[in-house]
Amino acid sequence: PPQVPVAIIGAENAPGLVEFLRRNRIDVLPAPSDPEVEVRSGRLGVVLVVPREFRAALRQGVPAPVRIIVDESRIAARSEFQHLHETVDNYGRDLNILRSLANSSP
């Protein structure tokens, strides 16, 4: 299956997530200076925004939301969005499973 190109703003805030995305058919692109313009123009299908507090939220075991910028009127962007969204969800599920296992260990 082809790689899905995704520009990431704040990749440095989530190295584990970025590595997970790379292992799951996502071609990580550099952050654009104006993500909304790049998405609206069609130069980028989706942009993932990872806030500064992402890593701290993970350490505290609380939800660490991210934002996906997409122009859903573009057909191609819909499939890119869907793959990115599912992959980010899978990352969160995997983290929750690991936390559960760590908390249940004697």
Q: How would you sum up this structure, described in words?
A:
It is globular, with a radius of gyration of 15 Å. The chain has helices spanning 15-23, 35-41, 54-60, 75-104; strands at residues 4-9, 26-29, 46-49, 67-70. Helix content is 50%, strand content 17%.
Quickly count the helices: 4
H and E string? EHEHEHEH
Q: What's the pLDDT, averaged over the residues?
A: 90
Sheet with most strands: strand arrangement: 2-1-3-4
> Cα-atom Rg, whole angstroms?
15 Å
Key words describing this protein structure:
single chain; 106 residues; 4-stranded mixed β-sheet; 4 helices
Quick take:
This protein has helices spanning 15-23, 35-41, 54-60, 75-104; strands spanning 4-9, 26-29, 46-49, 67-70. It is of the alpha/beta class and 106 residues long.
